[in-house]
Amino acid sequence: MPPSPVIQTDIHLTNDDLAPTKTRSWAWSDYLFLWMSNVHSVAGYVTAGSLFAMGLPAADIFVALIAAICIVLVGSNLVAKPSFLSGTPFPVTVRMVFGVRGALIPAFVRGVIAVGWYGIQTWLASNALLILGLKIWPQIAPWANATQHGFIGLSSLGWITFMTVWFLQICIFWRGMDAIRHFIDWAGPTIYVMMLALDGWLLWQTHGHIDFHVFNSGEKMGFTVRLLGILNAVALTVAFFSPIILNFGDFARYGKSMRDIKIGNFWGLPFNFMGFSMLTLATIALTQPVFGHIIIDPVETVNQINNMPVIVIGMITFLTATIGINISANFVSAAFDFSNLAPHILSWRRGGIIAAFATIIMMPWNLYTRPELIHFTLDVLGTFIAPLIGILLSDYYLVQKQNIVTPDLYSMNTNGKYWYTNGTNPIALVSLIAGVCCGLVFIFAQPYAALQNFSWFFGFCAGSILHVGLNRHLLFARKQNQPVA
Predict the structure, then answer these.
(1) Which of 80, 295, 309, 432 has its CA 20 to 30 A from that of 243?
(2) What is the pLDDT of residue 373?
(3) Which pLDDT does position 3 carry in this prediction?
């Protein structure tokens, strides 16, 4: 375990939450449960289910999910190391790349994206509460109709359940990181119990028969079409998990050792995700013979069961699991990012409150309602995240050669390693803008519509390659004692 350095800091660059952590208490099991919370959510289930809209066979979707999660595993391990060694969260760690002032830009971008995801997850969790309320009190159904009783696209009852979940998450968040750790330690595994019970009931209804061919004819596709479909599914899944990859340093800083982090990531990602994916695919396949049509939303699946105790337990389980991922993957990171804007004024908790209120303004219920809209949302959000991941990793491993001077991350001294030009690294900013623009071109330019789902990889490669290339050009020019062209 690296020691937490004693540093002299600038008051405008730090507070108690952004300073190198003094507590290293997260074991491998905590990272396993962290990933369980991140994977076992309504959004994760719906995202996996939306892949069926692509018309692929279940086997191809399963292959795509496993391939994607292996990419997530590698990315998370790589992102973990600089934050673990320095004990700093992302907004501070990224100062080594963008400079102590320039880092405000990527931190703010990540904060806005985290707010968007936080809103999406809150809305999805609130749907479980809404359906539960309708089951218990069916007479309130008119208040769930946005056209009769609604405001800016959400029904009156939807607003009540959304704000209820919103408030519950604030209560958990306000108790601090240790309380969040304990919450996710049991929140993630609970959905396994629920899904196993749900699949058991569905199998009982079909007399133990399950047919993965009931919802598509993808096997009739040619090899090239199926391969392209798998690659598209991989790209979408990586885009879904990309915020968690970028945010992982916020949790890696608390690890007892890099070994604990890697072991927890292994069991929490490929191993755990394989089990969850199998349960997800089985559940979706079983909805066809039992209910007469494919259902990709687990909340709706539970709602179809005519058993009140099962519905209550199921909805509470999905609500708990989704709150777990929302706090860990989105709320924590947004709080750090907004606190970083003015550390001497905004604490981590105050940053979280800003993020929570910003969530309402974004109206997340308009971002995740249909498969095509889900894919578009993933592409757009992923396009802003991918270059950040690429630039962070390429800088630390290829430019900085895995060296990080922690005291200089908190210093505005012009002789500091991370001061750059006026506190900002222009190379990193140019690379970020170029990476984002590259990804957006493949999303919005009609000639590249077929490659839209690959925007994440194009943005990642463009940002990282340009960043390394410009840095090497600068280094070469300095060695030659020539001005940079």
Answers:
(1) 295
(2) 67
(3) 47
What would the DSSP string read from start to end of 368-396? SSSHHHHHHHHHHHHHHHHHHHHHHHHII
Tokens of 17: 């939450």
Q: Which CATH number fits domain 28-387: 1.20.120.140, 1.10.4160.10, 2.60.120.10, 1.25.40.10?
A: 1.10.4160.10
Is the CB of residue 78 less than 8 Å from the CB of residue 393? yes
Query: What backbone phi and psi angles, to 5 degrees, belong to 424?
Result: -130, 135
- The residue whose two tokens read 């050792």 is 257
C-alpha triplet 1, 34, 93: angle, nearest 5°: 50
User: What tens digit of pLDDT does each residue of 402-423 get?
Assistant: 999 999 999 888 888 898 888 8
Pairing of strands 154-155, 150-151: antiparallel
**Rg over CA atoms, the chain:** 23
Q: What is the pLDDT of residues 22-66, one digit of tens each?
A: 889 899 998 998 888 777 766 677 776 677 666 777 778 888 888
Residue with tokens 């350095």: 5
What whole-number distance in Å separates Cα of residue 239 and Cα of residue 440? 14
For 476-485, what is the mean pLDDT? Answer: 63
Rounded-to-integer distance, Cα 91 and Cα 246, Å: 11
Strand partners, 40: none
In sequence order, which residues have a C-beta less than 8 Å from that of residue 389 and are 6 or more positions away? 75, 79, 242, 245, 246, 460
How confident is the model at residue 82, as a pLDDT?
96
H helix runs in 326-454, sequence order: 332-341, 348-361, 371-394, 426-444
Mean pLDDT of 442-446: 81
Calculate helix-pair angle for 308-325, 28-39, nearest 10 degrees. Answer: 120
Q: What distance in Å separates the CA atoms of residue 233 and residue 239, rounded to the nearest whole number?
A: 10
Rounded to 10 deg, the angle between the 58-86 and 258-266 helix axes is 170
Burial of 204 (0-12, 13-18, 19+ CB in 10 A): exposed
Average pLDDT, the chain: 83
Q: Tell me: the pLDDT tens digits for 188-201? A: 777 778 778 888 88
User: What is the C-alpha to C-alpha distance for residues 315 and 96, in angstroms, rounded to an integer?
Assistant: 44
The residues pairing with 26 across neighbouring beta strands, listed in sequence order, are 255
How far is the C-alpha of 466 from the C-alpha of 360, rounded, in Å?
A: 36
Tell me, what amino acid is at 465?
I
Which residue is associated with the tokens 């005291």?
407
Residue 384, token pair as written in the block: 């802003």
What pLDDT, on the 0 to 100 scale, is given for residue 333?
A: 84
pLDDT of residue 223: 74
> Which amino acid is located at 133 in the chain?
G
